[in-house]
Specification:
Layout lengths: L6 E3 L5 E3 L3 E2 L7 H12 L4 E3 L7 H9 L9 E6 L6 H15 L6 E4 L11 H17 L6 E4 L3 H8 L8 E5 L7 H9 L3 E5 L11 H10 L3 H11 L3 E2 L6 H8 L8 H8 L17
Parallel strand pairs: 3-4, 4-5, 5-6, 6-7, 7-8, 8-9, 9-10
Antiparallel strand pairs: 1-2
Helix pairs in contact: 1-2, 2-3, 3-4, 7-8
C-alpha cells in the first residue's frame, strides 16, 4: 500500500480503499459532517458508519455534497442488534439508505453476532438476516456484505445456510489484541479483516513503549498504529473529528515498521485493552 487510494480486493472483485474514516462516537450534525467532509477533501475515499452511531444523515450529506463522484467513495454501514429477521433487515436497510440519502451501499455488515435480545435464537436470527442481505446483494443494492465482531463459532453457524460467504469481518484489532486464530480463520474463508478501534479507543496513547517506538520512527503513536495495521494486512478505520489528526492518521506511506517491531506490537497482550465478548455483551 502506497497511498490512500490503494485498495484491497474483496473476494467478489470489489475494491475497497485501504484506510477508512471511522465515525463511532461522532455525533450527528456539524461534527460528523465536517469530519467526513475534511477526510474526503484530504484524500480519504472510505467512510465507515452504522445505524447505532446515529450519524448516517450527516455522513451521507457530506458524501453527497463532496463533489466527488459517488462511485469513487466507499460507504459502509451496519445493522444494529435490535433488528433481526428477513423482513426486518430489509426495512432497516431501507431506513439506512434513506438517512444516508444514497441509492446503494458499498458494504453492509451485521454489527454483532449474538445480541442480548436474541441470545437464545441467535443462530436462526442471523441466518434469516443474512438471507435478506444476500438478496439485497444479489439485487445490486449492496456491493459487498459482511459481518462484525463475529468469532469462529458464529461464522461456522452462519455458513451452515449461507449462499454467500461474508467478504469482511470488522473486529477490534490493535497491538496486544491481534486475534491471530480468528484472523487466520477468516483469511482461510477469503474474508478481509477490518480493524476498528486501531488505537484501542485511545488507550494506546498512554503506553510508554508505543511512545518510544513512535519517536524511533519520528512519527506519532497514531501513525505507527495505522502503519502496523496495514503491515498486518488489516484495513484500519481510525477515527478523529479534527482535520489535522485526520490528515496525520493517513500520513503513513513514507515509512515502514521493522518486522520485529510489527511482531512485538502484536504480542503486547492487553496493552491497549481487549475486546468485549460478543456472547456476553449486554447490547
Amino acid at each position: 500500500m502506497k497511498s490512500l487510494t490503494d485498495t484491497y480486493t474483496l473476494q467478489n472483485g470489489v475494491e475497497i480503499p485501504c484506510i477508512g474514516l471511522g465515525t463511532w462516537q461522532v455525533p450527528d450534525g456539524e461534527l460528523a459532517y465536517n469530519a467526513v467532509r475534511d477526510a474526503l477533501s484530504l484524500g480519504y475515499r472510505h467512510v465507515d458508519t452504522a445505524a447505532v452511531y446515529g450519524n448516517e444523515a450527516s455522513v451521507g450529506q457530506a458524501v453527497r455534497e463532496s463533489g466527488i463522484p459517488r462511485e469513487e467513495i466507499f460507504v459502509t454501514s451496519k445493522l444494529w442488534n435490535s433488528v433481526r429477521g428477513y423482513k426486518e433487515t430489509h426495512e432497516a436497510f431501507e431506513e439506512t439508505l434513506k438517512k444516508l440519502g444514497l441509492e446503494y451501499l458499498d458494504l453492509y455488515l451485521i454489527h454483532w453476532p449474538n445480541p442480548a435480545g436474541f441470545r437464545n435464537v441467535w443462530k436462526e436470527a442471523n441466518a434469516e438476516t443474512w438471507r435478506a442481505m444476500e438478496d439485497l446483494y444479489k439485487a445490486g443494492r449492496i456491493r459487498a456484505i459482511g459481518i462484525s465482531n463475529f468469532l469462529q463459532h458464529h461464522i461456522d453457524a452462519l455458513l451452515e445456510k449461507a449462499e454467500v460467504v461474508p467478504m469482511v469481518n470488522q473486529v477490534r484489532l490493535c497491538p496486544g489484541d491481534a486475534k491471530e486464530d480468528l484472523v487466520a480463520y477468516c483469511r482461510g474463508h477469503g474474508m478481509l479483516l477490518e480493524a476498528y478501534s486501531p488505537f484501542g479507543t485511545g488507550k494506546a496513547f498512554e503506553v510508554p513503549e508505543l511512545q518510544e517506538m513512535a519517536a524511533k520512527y519520528n512519527k506519532s503513536v497514531a501513525q505507527v498504529l495505522v502503519r502496523w495495521s496495514l503491515q498486518m494486512g488489516f484495513l484500519p478505520l481510525p477515527k478523529s473529528t479534527k482535520a489535522a489528526r485526520i490528515k496525520e492518521n493517513a500520513d503513513v506511506f513514507d515509512f515502514e515498521l521493522d518486522e520485529d517491531n510489527v511482531a512485538h506490537l502484536a504480542g503486547m497482550t492487553g496493552a491497549c485493552g481487549l475486546s468485549s465478548d460478543p456472547d456476553t455483551v449486554t447490547w
